[in-house]
Amino acid sequence: MEKILSCHVGTDKLRINLGAGYSLAVNKPVTDDPTALRDAIRAEALALGFAACGFARADAAPESAARLDQWLETGAHGSMAWMEARKGQRARPRNLWPEARSLIMLGMSYAPRDDPIRLAEEPQIGRISVYAQGADYHDVVKKALKALARWLVDRAGGELKLFVDTAPVMEKPLSAAAGIGWQGKHSNLVSREHGSWLFLGAIMTSLDLPADAAHEDRCGSCDACQAACPTGAFPSPYVVDARRCISYLTIEHDGPIPREFRGPIGNRIYGCDDCLAVCPWNKFAEAAAANRAFAARAELAAPELCDLLALDDAGFRMVFAGSPIKRIGRNRMVRNAAIAAGNSGLPALLPPVRALLDDPAPNVRGAAIWALSRLDPAAFVEERGRRAAAERDPVVMAEWDVEIAKEASAR
């Protein structure tokens, strides 16, 4: 959560507090017409690079609180303890900021130019989710939110806070309440104009602004996203069990990836786009509408697994500088690459996999052991004889179980 701006009305000026002791004097509000102001905000948002902008009351989507409680009670959030720790604030915007009167919900397009699933049959490549192939969306969206916030305070005064995926704000149901889309059966927001490819941001303001009509659900009988999930992460439509979701397993989950999901992960090394990519509404999304900052960087569009397996910490930071991927750290990325290598069937990846058997990170060593058992069961048995007795980490020791080699060789 970031309190960016506050304003104080003097005799003829507003003084805007920008934080860190800086302030800016601007003119008093130039309009008293809330509808005209709402329309002007929307136009300014589009000019700043947002593809969608909608408005809701600060008490919108009250049903989300009960749904959140039910979801947390099932444990479907996995190890994301922060989801539960601030659930009271997450459930209702005014629990986070009581002064909020209106919500401005914004979407920025990252619609891809190429089919996100096109690399599924390229085992030497590591697949990175579309949203992470360009600039870090936190930085890009926040910059535009700040610009809109400054414009709004200059135009109309009031106080506000802005958010982009870093605070307990339920952006998806609130965006649906603000009319910019609806929560699809894959649980993400779907837009008639932009498909499933929107980054979401929010501005809470003390101003009273007219609300837009909530968007109706347009999923109908379609279950394409449910059928596309390789790990069965949807126990029912509109509900995702993070513990079975490849995005959670490769990004949020820090320990060893459960064995039942390793094969279905395929060559995905950061996130998964399958449920989003098959949404029929994507046919209306135009890559030209995407913010250019999200265009795929060459080194992230189709990285070679052999290069990823060889990354040290400095190399990881260099490759993923300016990317949201940087937050997972080198060990988690190399763990993911080792799982993908184990699924590749490529003997050329044996040398870098074997080198990781000496890695100081247990989750990397464990993934390398599994990958070796898949790529070369005989080499697995050989290495087990040399290394298993010296291993002290109990989770890594379990990876050396000889029954795993038998299972691998039977495939």
Question: How are the secondary structure elements laid out?
Answer:
Layout: E1 2-9, E2 13-19, E3 22-27, H1 34-47, E4 52-57, H2 64-73, H3 81-85, H4 87-91, H5 93-96, E5 102-109, E6 127-128, H6 137-156, E7 160-163, H7 171-177, E8 182-183, E9 189-190, E10 198-205, H8 224-228, H9 246-252, H10 259-265, E11 268-270, H11 274-277, H12 298-301, H13 305-309, H14 313-319, H15 329-344, H16 350-355, H17 362-375, H18 377-387, H19 394-399, H20 402-409
Parallel strand pairs: 6-11
Antiparallel strand pairs: 1-2, 1-7, 2-3, 4-5, 5-10, 7-10, 8-9
Structural write-up:
By secondary structure, the chain is an alpha+beta fold. The chain has two domains: 2-303, no CATH class; 304-411, no CATH class. It has helices spanning 34-47, 64-73, 81-85, 87-91, 93-96, 137-156, 171-177, 224-228, 246-252, 259-265, 274-277, 298-301, 305-309, 313-319, 329-344, 350-355, 362-375, 377-387, 394-399, 402-409, and strands spanning 2-9, 13-19, 22-27, 52-57, 102-109, 127-128, 160-163, 182-183, 189-190, 198-205, 268-270. It has a seven-stranded antiparallel beta sheet with strand order 3-2-1-7-10-5-4, with helices on both faces. A hairpin with a 5-residue loop joins strand 8 (182-183) and strand 9 (189-190). Helix 17 crosses helix 20 (402-409). The longest helix is centred in the middle third of the chain and has 20 residues, at 137-156.
